[in-house]
Every structure is written in structure tokens, then in C-alpha cells.
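Quick one - first record:
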Amino acid sequence: MMRTPFNRQGRAGAVPGVQRRVPELVARHQHGTPASPGIAPAELQLPDPAFRVNPFPSVLSAPRKMVLPLPPLRWPRRMAIVALMLGLMLFLLALTALSAQEHPYPRPAGVTDSSIAWGEDLFHGSANCVGCHGEGGRGTERGPNLTGGVWFHGPGTYEWLIQQVIHGVPASKSVSGDAMPMRGWVPMNNSDVAAVAAYVWSISHPPQPPPKEKPVPGN
């Protein structure tokens, strides 16, 4: 059986001569007319319209394997960076909380360990502050508690405490009705006054609960 040559697009007439004879061969086959010499009527078979010539049978007919590309390593790197940043932030927060627990109230410039120790000696010694404010500044009937962080006459800052010790408290403004003498019972110089104020600031920062016997706030 003879097939009409086709081109790569599957259309007849790719070979010169055959394209010119196809209409004649089709007409003779339909009307029963004998074909041209050398071509039998039985051999005049029309090509299948769905027939297509595969010019590369070994390439197109071979099964293909789909290979997916590996994902780039961007997300793991980003996640690692984010985890590192979160860990650093948590470490800084923990360090800040730890430092805040150790020093919840930052000390003023004049409040040092030496000034606090010096002021404690004066408070319980020559200045005789303990006579009214009691041991450790916890208060007595003659003087109020200085450790509660509650003040009637000012904010309770270190600078304000210095001014309170210098100028004293008159009896009309005192909680107990007894006056607080200027610069203590034994007059103190400015350095001693600053040391006593440093000690009073240290026992009131942070504030302590009032004593059970007599919860009296500080001046």
C-alpha cells in the first residue's frame, strides 16, 4: 500500500510532483476511473488525516522524568537569623531584669557606700538622729518612720533630704509635735549633712513595710 508523502507538519504535497497528482488520483478513485499507468486503483488510499510523521521518534517517544529543582536555602538562613535575634533579645531582657532586681533604684551621685556608712555612724552617734527616729530610722513616739518611703513635706529625693537636715522641721509642721533641729542635735557641716541624707535615702529606697508597733510615715 502506497502512502502519500507528507511534510513535518503532516500536510500532503511536501514532495514536488505528488502534490500535483493528489487531486487527479482522488478524482479517479472516487469515479472508478483507472489510474495512471503504474498505479493500481487499490493502491489509491487516502491518508489518515490524523496521521503525523514524527521526525524525531527516539526523542519524542521516550518518557520524560520531571526533576523538581531543590528549594533555595533562603528560608533556613532567615529562620536561623530570626532565632538568633530572638535569643539575643531574650538574653538582654533577662540581663536587664537581673540588674533591675539588684539595683531597683539607681543611686544619686552623692550616695555611695562610704557616704552611707559615714552617715549611719552620724545618725546613730553624734548627730543623735536615733533619739527621735529610732534604731535604723524605724520611728518612735517622738519621730516618724523614715524607711516607708512616705513623706509629708517633700518628694524624698536625696537633694531634698539634704535641705531637710539643713533647715530642720518646726514643731508646727512635725508629725509628732516635736521640732527637728537644724543640722541635727549637734550642728553638722555640709559634708556630714550630705552623709546623713545619703544614709536616710538608702534606708528608704526601696521602701520598707512599716513596723508593726507604730506605722508612722516619714517627714
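second record:
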Amino acid sequence: MSEELRSCPFCGSGPARGFGQGPGQASFSGVEMMRGEKGRHYVQCGTCGAQSLTSFHEGAAISNWNTRADFPGITDPAAFVQAARGCVEALEAILHAVCHDTGFAAAVRADSGVAYPWEALDISEEQSRAALTAFCAATGDKM
């Protein structure tokens, strides 16, 4: 390998400390070169599962992994992901407290005897649920 593999942009793991058990099997200990089907190469983070595009050449697979958008304000990717997950948990808690069947909005509607629409609440609930769904789909987290 002529070019050194960069750390994982998602979890911050560095180079793998071991070797996979066979083609397409990661060592689950960091970033490493993998050989997939039909001789195609790719780089995979065995810690979080992120992987590069595949290529017939090792050098191109490394370049695919190393060429990515850097976020200058993020110095610790793992801490950033942890903070993002904290935001997701907080958003889920707010949705539950306000929009759930036993939440604030349901209590006010039940107490008033009028099920009038709260358009702003309905819109923000829809946007919050869409953002949570997208984040969880992108990270493999479950809601």
C-alpha cells in the first residue's frame, strides 16, 4: 500500500490491530483493506461497519476511503456521533412528552374537550419524526 489509510470518519477508529478470517471478513478492530467478490477491493472499518466504494485496485480503494469531506470543526468524530445520538435521545423524549398519547398535547386536548388542530405542533412532530428516521437509517440505530 502506497498511501496510509485514514481513521474512520464515523467512529474515529484507526488502523486494524488484526486480520480478518477470510475474504470479506473484517477483524472488527479498526480500519483495514478488504477483498470482496470478484477481486474487488474496499476499505472497511471493522468497528462501526463503514466502508468505501469498491475498486479493482487497492490504491483506488484506499483513495476512495481517504477522499472525503472533512469537517474542520469536528476534531473528535466519535464524540460528535455520541453527541448526535444524545440529541436524538432528547428529541425522542420531547416527542414522547408532548406528542405521545399520554403527552402534554393529548392532555390539553382531552381536558378542553376539543380536539382542535395544532398545526405548528403537527408540523414540528412530522419534521422531528422524519429527522429521527433519517438519522437512525443513516447510522443503523433503532428508534
